[in-house]
Automatic annotation (TrEMBL):
It comes from Planotetraspora silvatica. This is YncE family protein. Gene3D superfamilies: YVTN repeat-like/Quinoprotein amine dehydrogenase. Residues 329-346 have a biased composition (Polar residues). Residues 322-346, 375-403 are annotated as: Disordered. The lineage of its organism: Bacteria, Bacillati, Actinomycetota, Actinomycetes, Streptosporangiales. SUPFAM superfamilies: C-terminal (heme d1) domain of cytochrome cd1-nitrite reductase (SSF51004).
Length: 403
């Protein structure tokens, strides 16, 4: 869909400003990023990046997208004008995800293996600071004024925490207890509340930014991996990975007002993971990690309107909004693409634990998860390189196991 941002008169005719939107999807097992034209929901480019891109972050102006490479401890800088990698920036150990500041000046990278947040100056794509964070940081969200960064500390485990960084001093100023294995995080447009998905439970913690304390807890589906808030602040969308659904939370009541099922190609589950919402709030894009697809939800009707194939094990998605045209196909050869398949019980060793469930299949996943968590935690403590991302939103789903 071509969005007409507006018209301004000229001496000869009216000049049209065209705005296009593209969804960028990190494909963990394909070492690539898929580019989806949201006008017709087709993949228009595949960009080779670093080893195991686990997170994706677009700048507010849409000029660049950053692929967070968990396996190679770096960040690939993608020009959206050409859909090619124009630079690589070193990060900390096992970077899991990143978010740009509201003004686009800096990129904060959550380094899950080194308990740090790497700060990159987007003007130069150079590291300008490294901030001590909590235990296994995996995702970052900023207050609208950019004053504070809230970071989920996944490896805090059952005693999950969210760290608060003062962006002026780049010092952690608060640590907030939340649920087990906090993963995704989002902040309402008015800056009043933070929603943290507790992947090791079936809950989302609601944090007041005034008191930096949990003021409510919302029960959602199994293994909530990520969350995104709509532009008007009325709804929060949560990816329930083990329930193969997206829960919709009303922020006025902090209750689930809708549950949107997602289906993978039988007999594969969808495994909804990373989320992104379009600036107008009309669509939510979901990275379906188990199914190697991306689903597009129409928020107006609360159903999946389209599903398309992407690369192997998509883990995250972000929207790049660009004026006057859009990206072109890459000049380089696309990275390898792996076909989807049945996710075996071995491959369902996802990080986290679901607290209680009556579903036998989910209980088996929980048992597998518990074993894997212990393995990854051991690796994390001695800072050796785990072979899978330590957070579910950006999680590796292959038969490899930590050594």
């Amino acid at each position: 869909m071509i969005l007409m941002a507006g018209f301004s008169p000229t001496s000869a005719a009216q000049a049209v400003t065209t705005v296009r939107q593209f969804a960028y999807v990190s494909n963990l097992d394909a070492d690539s990023v898929s580019v989806i034209d949201t006008a017709d929901e087709t993949v228009v480019a595949t960009v080779p990046v670093g080893d195991r891109p686990n997170g994706i972050a677009a700048l507010p102006d849409g000029s660049r997208v950053y692929a967070i490479n968990f396996g190679s401890d770096d960040v690939s800088v993608i020009s959206t004008a050409t859909n090619t990698v124009i630079g690589t920036v070193d990060a900390g150990t096992r970077p899991a995800d990143a978010t740009a500041t509201p003004d686009g000046r800096f990129l904060y990278v959550a380094d899950s293996g080194s308990d740090t947040v790497t700060v990159i100056d987007t003007a130069t794509d150079a590291v300008v600071d490294t901030v001590a964070a909590g235990d296994g940081p995996v995702e970052v969200a900023f207050t609208p004024d950019g004053r504070y960064a809230y970071v989920t500390d996944f490896f805090a485990g059952l005693a999950g925490t969210v760290s608060v960084i003062d962006t002026a001093t780049r010092i952690t100023v608060a640590t907030i207890p939340v649920g087990a294995y906090p993963s995704g995080i989002t902040i309402t447009p008015d800056g009043r509340y933070v929603y943290s998905t507790n992947f090791g439970t079936t809950t989302v913690s609601v944090i007041s930014t005034t008191s930096n304390s949990v003021v409510d807890t919302v029960t959602v589906g199994a293994a909530p991996a990520d969350a995104v808030v709509g532009p008007d602040g009325s709804r929060v969308y949560v990816a329930d990975m083990f329930s193969d659904a997206v829960s919709v939370i009303s922020t006025s009541s902090n209750t689930v007002v809708d549950t949107i099922p997602l289906s993978g190609p039988a007999p594969v589950d969808s495994g909804p993971n990373g989320l992104a919402i379009t600036p107008d709030g009309s669509r939510v894009y979901v990275a379906d990690t188990f199914a190697d697809t991306t689903s597009m939800i129409s928020t107006a009707v609360g159903t999946v309107a389209d599903t398309g194939d992407v690369g192997s094990r998509p883990t995250d998605v972000d929207i790049a909004r660009m004026e006057t045209g859009g990206p072109s196909a890459p000049s380089s050869t696309p990275a390898r693409q792996e076909s989807g398949g049945v996710v075996s019980s071995e491959n369902e060793n996802l990080t986290g634990m679901v607290a209680t469930t009556g579903d036998a299949g989910v209980r088996q996943k929980v048992r597998d998860v518990h074993t894997f968590v212990q393995q990854v935690k051991k690796r994390h403590l001695d800072h050796r390189a785990p072979t899978r991302p330590p957070k579910v939103r950006r999680l590796r789903l292959t038969t490899r196991t930590p050594s």
